[in-house]
Known about the structure:
Elements: E1 2-6, H1 7-11, E2 16-17, E3 20-21, H2 23-32, E4 37-41, H3 48-57, E5 61-68, H4 76-96, E6 100-104, H5 113-133, E7 137-141, H6 153-162, E8 166-171, H7 172-176, H8 182-189, E9 193-198, E10 200-203, E11 210-211, E12 217-221, H9 230-239, E13 245-248, H10 257-275
Parallel strand pairs: 1-4, 1-13, 4-5, 5-6, 6-7, 7-8, 8-9, 9-13
Antiparallel strand pairs: 2-3, 10-12, 11-12
Helix pairs in contact: 3-4, 4-5, 8-9, 9-10
Amino acid sequence: MKLAVMSYTFSRQGWEINGRFNLEGMCRVAKDLNIDGADIVTTSGLPPAEIKRVLADYGIAPVCYTFGVALNFPTATERTAGVDSVKAGVDIAVEIGAPLIMAVTGGEQGIPRDVSRRHFICGLQESAAFARQAGIAMSIENFPGADSPFVVSSDVLEAIREVPGLKLTYDNGNVLLGGEDPAVSFKRCAEHVVHAHFKDWAFAEPGKGMEGLDGRRYEPTLIGEGIVPHRACLQAMKQAGYSGYINIEYEGNKYAPDEATRRAANYLQGLIRELG
């Protein structure tokens, strides 16, 4: 198992220099931590050719290209723009050299989860052939929230059964918000997992944070400072023979992104060493 930096962890706090996303700065943090992979979450306005060049200059592999897709509509006509965005994302993945894309599949308030899930499955079916033809694996993640169509393993496995070639980017923190044990969830989906996100959550006071599928409220915190059982997740992944990357994802604001990534990397690297 290997760690990867995640551009979202940096970009969400305005990690910029001269008004542009500071990709080189993120890469320097990665190199300092002996991390050789990066998940690029949208291009942040940078040309794909520049992203590819900078990552190569630092010896960092582009492990995934991640972006949102507008597929939560009942008809193929309404999903056309979303399908086109998947095609565009595949093209960017090819250009930067990433072997994998991840489509962000958030729900929508007022649309039942099962209805949203059906919309997304249809849109992913309409998009799958394009990814296959380009030699790019397509994945979804466990996404948090009471309205999210894909939270727990049964949600994800329904889509995998129906969309040819679809894979899972396993998110251990988001699974927890569905009321499912994250290590158990990984075991149920292990054969389909091609990438992973680690994050952490703490319980939030009533009316604050995000409502989970389990009805509780959560707020983001740093990996190792919350309630997600990372050791158990890593143990399950090790037992399954998972050898891919694990993103360091941080959605809080207590730490700057470089400091958050350093702290989380040291914590996770320590657990990985202990597990042998």
